[in-house]
From TrEMBL:
It is found in: Endomembrane system. One of its GO terms (cellular component) is endomembrane system. Pfam families: VIT1. PANTHER family: FE(2+)/MN(2+) TRANSPORTER PCL1 (PTHR31851). It comes from Micromonospora sediminimaris. One of its GO terms (molecular function) is manganese ion transmembrane transporter activity. This is Membrane protein. The lineage of its organism: Bacteria, Bacillati, Actinomycetota, Actinomycetes, Micromonosporales.
Length: 238
């Protein structure tokens, strides 16, 4: 069977603009690592299962809200910065179209395009102001002004995925179990599955992605468990 070239297929590249995938991935990973480490820390201190559930739930709610607000602010600020740069480039194109066309040609020449061809294409682009603006922004800023991520989508994605990730290590307690080891095992499984799922977008081996995330989250859990055990045994820092 003859394979259709990727260039002839629509959407043959993954979404790398960061609209929803990045906050979803970071949200889920942060939710898992944060609550696994939190539960390990308080559990290591010898508190009751009820206290662990209360602590984990508070961590879920506070973390999800913080992630959503942070993601919204980050994406909106980035979009506003890009909009300001686009407006600046628009003014330059209106005031100095010849100089801007030469700047665009020089960029292409530096990448190996013949000078006469680069100048010819830049002049052709200059005759279409909106296309010229888009081309200058893409070449000079490395962004597409028409494909900026939605801050609300990023915030909602981050909120939901953090909540789901943070809920995983709490599930055994919510179903009546009282074993810290079981909760951490659930969290470890969630880390492995999340890491393996992300590998689908990065072309890594699924088990490599899963193990990497498991090791990173496990290191955080061990650190907080040891701190919790130390404080719990010593009766506090004060």
């Amino acid at each position: 069977m003859t394979e259709t070239p990727a260039a002839l297929r629509e959407h043959h590249h993954a979404d790398v603009s960061g609209g929803w995938l990045r906050p979803a991935v970071f949200g889920a990973m942060d939710g898992l690592v944060t609550n696994i480490a939190l539960i390990a820390g308080v559990g290591g201190g010898g508190v009751s299962p009820r206290t662990i559930v209360l602590t984990g739930t508070a961590g879920l709610v506070a973390g999800a809200i913080s992630m959503a607000l942070g993601e919204y602010t980050s994406v909106r600020s980035a979009n506003e910065q890009i909009a300001a740069e686009v407006a600046k480039e628009r003014r330059e194109l209106e005031r100095h179209p010849e100089a801007e066309a030469r700047e665009l040609a020089d960029l292409w020449i530096a990448r190996g395009l013949p000078e006469d061809l680069a100048v010819q294409v830049a002049e052709a682009v200059r005759r279409h102001p909106e296309q010229a603006l888009r081309m200058h922004v893409q070449e000079e800023l490395g962004v597409n002004p028409d494909e900026q991520p939605n801050p609300w989508a990023a915030a909602l994605s981050s909120f939901l995925c953090f909540s789901v990730g943070a809920l995983v290590p709490l599930l055994p307690y919510l179903f009546g179990a009282t074993s810290l080891a079981l909760a951490l095992a659930f969290g470890g499984l969630g880390l492995f599955v999340a890491g393996a799922a992300v590998s689908r977008f990065t072309n890594r081996r699924w088990w490599t992605g899963g193990l990497r995330q498991l090791l990173l989250g496990g290191a955080a859990a061990v650190a907080t468990y040891l701190i919790g055990a130390l404080i719990g045994v010593s009766g506090g820092l004060g």
